[in-house]
């Protein structure tokens, strides 16, 4: 009776935070922050919050539905890799996780070369001869392992594996506590729930946030490739084909990782053919000549002459893409591609991070980098809230996170969506427009720097 009266008291908030009783008689465990989803973004967020000195007194729980799997440093490369931009790499370096990656393996990309199969217009970002890095290619599993190892050094972070959530109870108008129920009956509470649970986010659904999404009617085919020539493999190649882009990302001097966006029918065919037939189809996609309009040929030639007159045309030679020799056995796979964006990143006691908030086409390699940008911004925002003497779930601070990230993410997503639509057609006027755009971008160094800056 005494406890019941205490809970009715207006001065019993501390007691409510420490102990919450349920009808079945169990006592839930309370954390300041619970992160739903222990993938690359969720684990990097746990690590970032754990190492934020302004949040050292805050208890963080990371919930991951899958079991904990050790990486084990396999000899074969995984077919799922990410292209890490310099900002994300700096984040991992600051966390200490990059040392683990350096100890094992990664591939620097010094140049990105993009060209249109229907016109051969091209643009090059970076310089293969310089020391500047455009991006870093890292296997998903290795990056997650590096972050998982670093989380172990965060005394205020607990990780719970095999944690399948059945229900999120977000606070109502008067409440401040988030309730979380697992499938084994365990219950947790927190002041702030962070949804890092992917494109089908249960946290986002619990928020009832407006979510705009569509399918591209494409699949991304991935594989690990063996190259015919042994060379200094530091260039990422991307060719826009009529059915979608094909990209080769460096792994070693002899290996590259493939991301090939194509129709679902073609993707299923590519997965079913023999390895020799797959390699033949891939080399054809990289090398074959496509018939192009005479109008496009003449217009791009005239425009190139015009740029030369203005002394804007680039005389630098284009490198030649590699020829694929074979693929690693059993490395082929495919996944559906789509777009998604939540109009709300935050709510009372909750915030969305990474793919739970936004999803983009992989043609620019920016999807996971947007998530890592969310991580850095949210950590800074929560640190400022606590440092200023506010609560960690203060909506005014969470709105700052939402405003800052939407301002960046929407611009980037719009650019990626525009590129997808621009290159997802073979109509002559559109082919001409995009070809002239590639030529202009190649000629205008400030424009290229602006594009790289936005992507970084």
TrEMBL record:
Primary location recorded for the protein, binned into one broad class: mitochondrion
EC number: 1.14.15.45, 1.14.15.46
NCBIfam families with a match to the protein in the record: COQ6 (TIGR01989), Ubi-OHases (TIGR01988)
Alphabetical keyword list: FAD, Flavoprotein, Membrane, Mitochondrion, Mitochondrion inner membrane, Monooxygenase, Oxidoreductase, Transit peptide, Ubiquinone, Ubiquinone biosynthesis
Highest taxon in the source lineage: Eukaryota
Biological function: FAD-dependent monooxygenase required for two non-consecutive steps during ubiquinone biosynthesis. Required for the C5-ring hydroxylation during ubiquinone biosynthesis by catalyzing the hydroxylation of 4-hydroxy-3-(all-trans-polyprenyl)benzoic acid to 3,4-dihydroxy-5-(all-trans-polyprenyl)benzoic acid. Also acts downstream of coq4, for the C1-hydroxylation during ubiquinone biosynthesis by catalyzing the hydroxylation of 2-methoxy-6-(all-trans-polyprenyl)phenol to 2-methoxy-6-(all-trans-polyprenyl)benzene-1,4-diol.
FAD-binding domain boundaries: 31-288, 346-408
Known catalytic reactions: a 4-hydroxy-3-(all-trans-polyprenyl)benzoate + 2 reduced [2Fe-2S]-[ferredoxin] + O2 + 2 H(+) = a 3,4-dihydroxy-5-(all-trans-polyprenyl)benzoate + 2 oxidized [2Fe-2S]-[ferredoxin] + H2O; a 2-methoxy-6-(all-trans-polyprenyl)phenol + 2 reduced [2Fe-2S]-[ferredoxin] + O2 + 2 H(+) = a 2-methoxy-6-(all-trans-polyprenyl)benzene-1,4-diol + 2 oxidized [2Fe-2S]-[ferredoxin] + H2O
GO molecular function: 2-methoxy-6-polyprenolphenol 4-hydroxylase activity; 4-hydroxy-3-all-trans-polyprenylbenzoate oxygenase activity; FAD binding; oxidoreductase activity, acting on paired donors, with incorporation or reduction of molecular oxygen, reduced flavin or flavoprotein as one donor, and incorporation of one atom of oxygen
GO cellular component: extrinsic component of mitochondrial inner membrane
Recorded metabolic or biological pathway in which this protein acts: Cofactor biosynthesis; ubiquinone biosynthesis
Assembly description: Component of a multi-subunit COQ enzyme complex.
Compartments, record wording: Mitochondrion inner membrane
Protein's UniProt name: Ubiquinone biosynthesis monooxygenase COQ6, mitochondrial
Recorded name of the encoding gene: LOC115887911
Source organism (scientific name): Sitophilus oryzae (Rice weevil)
Cofactor: FAD
Enzyme class, first EC level, given as a word: oxidoreductase
